[in-house]
Amino acid sequence: MDEQRAARGSGGETHQVAGAGRPSLTTQQGVVVGDGQNTLRVGERGPAALEDSHFREKIFHFDHERIPERVVHARGYGAHGYFETYESLSDLTRADLFQRAGERTEVFVRFSTVAGNKGSADLARDVRGFAVKFYTREGNWDLVGNNIPVFFIQDPIKFPDLVHAAKQEPDRGFPQAQTAHDNFWDFVSLMPESTHMLMWIMSDRAVPRSFRFMEGFGVHSFRLIDAAGRSTYVKFHWKPKLGLQSVLWNEAVKINGADPDFHRRDLWDAIGRGDLPEWELGMQLFDDDFADRFAFDVLDPTKIIPEEEIPVRRVGRLVLDRVVDNFFAETEQVAFCTQNIVPGIDFTNDPLLQGRNFSYLDTQLKRLGGPNFTSLPVNAPRCPVAHFQQDGHMALANPRGRANYEPNSWPEQTGGPREDPERGFVTHPDAVGGAKRRLRPESFADHYSQARQFYLSQTPTERRHIADAYVFELSKVERPDIRARMVAGLRNVDEDLAAEIARGLGLPSLPDTLPAAREPIRDPAPSPALSILANGPHSFAGRKLGVLVTDGADAALLAELRAATEAAGATVEIIAPVVGGVDVSDGGHVVADQKLDGAPSVLYDAVAILATKDAAAQLARRPVARDFVSDATAHAKFIAYVDEAAPLLAAAGLAEGLDDGFLRIGPGAHPAAAFLDRCGQLRYWDRLGTQG
Ligand code: HDE
């Protein structure tokens, strides 16, 4: 044996062999592998032998590891959890998961960005997917939503055009994961129906701080159907327990460099430490009378129903409590399909929803390679499944016996399942009729009023961000006529906004207003629910404080800061000049979570600086330390500091006139808890005025 080993390797490599509880390595055929380090060769320095079945099998499998990525929503991250119903909704729906108070239904959730490829960065300016698979006792229900309640287009036939225009341009293969390029703005400026969605995309909603701090929406109107067959319209909402939070665009750009996996890491870490992300499921419920008198068409996916008109009733909560065991098996192979609904829920004729119902099944076939993807554990229903579908690639759930058709006259035990009119799915008998035509309903023609309502419902800070985002994106557009056309359309939304963008772009003059298909409503009632900043959350829970420490830092203050942060339900990360950590004032050693160069302040919701005077003077000479402070300042973050940190603050341009977003902590100054209190405001926007 030793001789053989010596013959195998002369490079001093480590051979780890099976034994002592470690299983033997095998091939896919179950044959135990004797040597996993060397291919079979003829002669010591000779050619490889084709009969090396282990090598051949291993490389073959590796060559086929990738499956086609999703054509949209390629970059995503999933987790398991449960949905808990608050109270029986049997007066509204016969859907089994809503029948019993306290009932828990297993779920799998996948969050995603839309435009970027699988390896793109998390903080792209983009809509986020929020797809939930409920494994109910009466089959799988997929609520495949987004974090924005409207969409770009009104007809599914435009989806390939939209996606082509948004993704990287076909000749050059870039830019990826961004809409800041000619093709996107060319297309949307020619599609006035996208105006409302664009307002959301240019707003802070498109750069969420993490998945945990964003809302979700089913977008379309759906139906709930009760046991008597009565239909109630419903729009689905997800409300994050921790409130909404977004980052500044300048932060997003920097986070993408510092940690392109910022969002998935955040979800993984939160679940890992038991800080379980939670959302409430909300329903806006309405009937035909409301639909008839509502100012817009409830089938138009470019419109919302303001919460002030139909309140959101909270009916249950979603808790994510388990990360995936294997990213590929679960997050990558999960197959959401909008047509997966259960008895008690039904579609409406929203044209986009109808188109989606075709697309999702089709795309799974391409992506997962065959029709049997429903047998994969992440896709398989948790309730009994019985049918006569058979064979195909990778058939795993094969029927037994002779009967593979029905009706048949084989005995009950072997004759297989039959339809069940009592328990089965019944389509709502919606009366429809009319000529077969290709047309856009007249009732979908108002493209600007709700865009205006959204804009007017934002705080001044948020409005500033919207204007800045338009200017940023359109400044990347090379063709001046596209920039001008976009501004011409925006004059229908808000003259001030259009003028501000025109100024930001340096347009020589304000272009003529684009003619509107229908005259927009000039004075829509604001909907306060549409603003992020106007709605709290006034809590630092679930957020992260970055504490920059140096040798000699005040040990007692650090302990106090940790305790106050934990009491606020937040987490601390220690950042030091070296990852090995620092020796603090009481002689103890504090291990760092991050080395300063790898932990810019954009990764934190607030920061604290605990340094000695000498160490602060040393840090002041390092650009990375100065950036740490000046970025936190520019991003309106709350900053705690000790007196001794003055040299670093001064080097970052903050010699005097610190605003109320800065708080001196430590002996003779504020207690750490006072700082955490302030952090509950999340950002000190006054520092920026409305200057972005
Ligand atoms: Fe999708 N969409 N979509 N979409 N969508 C896909 O299905 C499509 C739309 C959404 O995490 C694809 O499995 C069409 C609206 C999410 O796996 C594909 C139209 C909303 C996800 C597809 C839309 C969504 C997808 C690509 C216009 C919000 C990711 C991969 C008619 C309500 C699901 C896949 C996951 C994925 C088609 C518009 C949400 C090609 C044709 C509106 C969250 O089937």
CATH architecture of the largest domain: Beta Barrel
* The top level CATH class name of the largest domain: Mainly Beta
Helix content: 25-40%
| Biggest sheet record | 10 strands, antiparallel
pLDDT < 50 runs, ≥5 residues: 1-8
Query: How many β-strand runs?
Result: 18
Summing up helix and strand content along with how strands pair, one would put the structural category as alpha/beta
Distance between the termini: 71 Å
Mean pLDDT: 96
Radius of gyration: 29 Å
From the spread of the alpha carbons, the general shape counts as: globular
Structure ligands: CIS-heme D hydroxychlorin gamma-spirolactone 17R, 18S
The CATH topology label of the largest domain is Catalase HpII,  Chain A, domain 1
CATH homologous superfamily heading of the largest domain: Catalase core domain
Q: Which strand-content bin applies to the residues?
A: 15-25%
What topology does this entry show?
Layout: H1 2-8, H2 53-63, E1 76-85, E2 104-113, E3 128-136, E4 139-146, H3 159-166, H4 182-189, H5 195-201, E5 216-217, E6 222-225, E7 231-240, H6 249-258, H7 262-272, E8 278-286, H8 288-293, E9 313-323, H9 327-332, E10 345-346, H10 351-368, H11 449-456, H12 460-475, H13 480-490, H14 495-505, E11 544-549, H15 555-567, E12 571-576, E13 582-583, E14 589-590, E15 594-595, E16 606-610, H16 613-620, H17 623-634, E17 639-641, H18 646-651, E18 662-664, H19 672-679
Parallel strand pairs: 11-12, 11-16, 12-15, 16-17, 17-18
Antiparallel strand pairs: 1-2, 1-9, 2-3, 3-4, 5-7, 6-7, 6-10, 7-8, 8-9, 13-14
Helix pairs in contact: 3-4, 4-13, 5-11, 12-14, 13-14
Bound molecules: CIS-heme D hydroxychlorin gamma-spirolactone 17R, 18S.
